[in-house]
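Problem: given the chain below (121 residues), write out its structure.
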Amino acid sequence: MINRSATLLTVLLTACGRDAPSQPEQPAVSYVARETASNVQPTNPLSVQLLVVSGPVRFESLRQFIIEKGKQCNAVTRAVLLGGLAGSDEWLVTCKDTGEWTVWLRSDAPNEVLRCSTECE
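Solution.
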């Protein structure tokens, strides 16, 4: 009994000194749909729907929208409504693999997806 306890104690103490296997760093996910203290209101029916669904559903909906526009996005890590006016709403969407995109949801014109590093200016 004493030998077993000593062996177990030795194994535990030895394991404590080892580093845990490193995990790939995952981007932080934020389901916040508006910036803190923002009074932004949606003016497009699609934005209204996106704001009432859960974060994961909103992220997947926006990811699918980006892909349908011929762009790359393997996972959304952030999606924030930036503004809305007269049926046109602007969302800032961050994809894990391709970075930031501006998604325009419009009532009177085609919806758009723009790559922020090259097309958002």
